[in-house]
Design goal:
The complex is a heterodimer of chains A (112) and B (112). Chain A is 0% helix and 54% strand. Chain A is mainly β and 112 residues long. Helices cover 0% and strands 59% of the residues of chain B. In chain B, the strands form 2 sheets. In chain B, strands 2, 4, 5, 9, 10 and 11 form a 6-stranded mixed sheet that branches. A 5-stranded antiparallel sheet of chain B has the order 1-3-8-7-6, with no helix packed on it. In chain B, a hairpin with a 4-residue loop joins strand 7 and strand 8. Classes of the chains: A mainly beta (112), B mainly beta (112). The interface between A and B is medium-sized, with 29 and 24 residues.
Chain lengths: 112, 112
């Protein structure tokens, strides 16, 4: 069974630009969560989508947004990029509400 | 503010050693505590603990939760070089879906 797929794997942007990251969950998983991982802050929760609805949101500014489509695929968008947005963005899908997450390999964003 | 603290931050051991990793938490609406292993990019699920005093075991790894003292430990016996990774502790919340708050992790290196 295919795992969680994230695209692109690596990208470089400049300050002020925007970026869209994509995540395809494991087939049958309706919950998709996004996390930001940085060396200083560790893994931080961005948001969770379930059946196209945002179910939970972390403490990130409004520049960070997401959505989920009817096939459970999800996208997250970061507008007006800042240097501090450089991070590994991890997507995770889940079959149930247990916290047992299946993570993708991540999208490494570098903001110059 | 919810807090998950792991110790030590890093450690180096020799193959065959036994290690104990610690995770303490101060959160509201605790539902469960989870352990993940991150070798390269994608964290992988190890254990979920919801009840105090019941050990979860998988091969050479085991974990236990103390809900009175608000901590968990992850033990790895007869360590191997393949155990080298970052071990992440996370807490899930009642009504929180799959939102997790992670600790910053313990970096374990196992040398020959």
């Amino acid at each position: 069974k295919a795992g969680v797929t994230q695209t692109p794997r690596y990208l470089i942007k400049t300050r002020g630009q925007q970026v869209t990251l994509s995540c395809s969950p494991i087939s049958g998983h309706r919950s998709v969560s996004w996390y930001q991982q940085t060396p200083g802050q560790g893994l931080q929760f961005l948001f969770e989508y379930f059946s196209e609805t945002q179910r939970n949101k972390g403490n990130f500014p409004g520049r960070f947004s997401g959505r989920q489509f009817s096939n459970s695929r999800s996208e997250m968008n970061v507008s007006t990029l800042e240097l501090g947005d450089s991070a590994l963005y991890l997507c995770a899908s889940s079959l149930m509400n247990t916290g047992e997450l299946f993570f993708g390999e991540g999208s490494r964003l570098t903001v110059l | 503010e919810d807090k998950v603290v792991q110790s030590p931050l890093s450690l180096v051991v020799h193959e065959g050693d036994t290690v104990t990793l610690n995770c303490s938490y101060e959160v509201t609406n605790f539902r469960s505590l989870l352990w993940y292993k991150q070798e390269k990019k994608a964290p992988t699920f190890l254990f979920m603990l919801t009840s105090s005093g019941i050990e979860k075991k998988s091969g050479r790894l085991s974990s236990i939760l103390d809900k009175k003292e608000l901590f968990s430990i992850l033990n790895i016996t007869a360590t191997q070089t393949g155990d080298s990774a970052i071990y992440l502790c996370a807490v899930a919340f009642t009504g929180g879906g799959n939102k997790l708050t992670f600790g910053t992790g313990t970096q374990l290196k196992v040398e020959l």
